[in-house]
């Protein structure tokens, strides 16, 4: 008996041919999964379609589109225990990358077909569901400048061009960050609260890796004193993220907590999962294991050493722990 799922498809996402992409998805999934396909429109968003699917009691929900579509659909699935499938067809595809999900249609469909799920954390920002991150200041201004026309024309380069343009208008602001344990006051050009973030979300990369199932949120504070410092800090974050290391510059700070309240002076724009949602202040709370997502099968690490079973095996320990024999003889 086939599985069944609601497929939420954004026909204007990305730069590909949506008709061909939908045909490819159907050809890969429908031999195994009975798809009930619904399209987003200017009037009907992905979250509305996903909410309706939840109300119908569907077995699985699959979303196909850009980060905005995926995040919107995911918000309706929070705390429902309904498995959520991701097929990225957007510009940045940060959602899939952050969760280790392939961003090609074929590989994403294979991930869904394998049926392996993992519970990941989500969060709420001012009562708005958050899957990836909330950006204050520089990132929000950059997202606003990278409009739909630019993304359609230039793809991911649209964000880079918008970031370069925003550097010319870089402004710092006073920020107060409150956790359950402390209150931090400083000056910053960008503050990012991340639940999950790929390395390309550079301004979220203060700590050594963003863990999306630890029940905590990560805040990165970037506080350059000038444009040259902003470029240097951004490059350092990119390098440290690529190497899996924490940032070490004095103008970059980071901390981890379950709950943050953030206020700024002056008021700053806020972006949540790639969409402008308003301005500061914000309050962000983590919801541990709030979303069940289809993920690739994790292959077990290969053994680095396997000697048992060899004939006449003798192992000499060059620096044996105190109390242990220097020579271990193993016989079959």
Structural class: alpha+beta
What is the number of beta strands?
18
* Net shape: globular
Count structural domains.
2
The succession of helices and strands, N to C, reads: EHEHEHEHHEEEHHHEEEEHEEEEEEE
The overall pLDDT, averaged over residues, is 85
Fraction of residues in helices?
Answer: 25-40%
CATH architecture annotation of the largest domain: Sandwich
**How does the major sheet shape up?**
6 strands, antiparallel
How far apart the termini lie comes to: 48 Å
- State the helix count: 9
Gyration radius, rounded: 23 Å
CATH class of the largest domain: Mainly Beta
CATH fold category name of the largest domain: Tumour Suppressor Smad4
Poorly predicted ranges (pLDDT <50, ≥5 residues)? 148-164
Largest sheet, order of strands side by side? Answer: 6-5-16-13-8-9
Percentage beta strand: 25-35%
InterPro entries: ATP-NAD_kinase_N, Diacylglycerol/lipid_kinase, Diacylglycerol_kinase_cat_dom, Methylgl_synth, NAD/diacylglycerol_kinase_sf, YegS/DAGK_C
Protein name: Diacylglycerol kinase catalytic region
Domain DAGKc: 1-129
Organism: Anabaenopsis circularis NIES-21
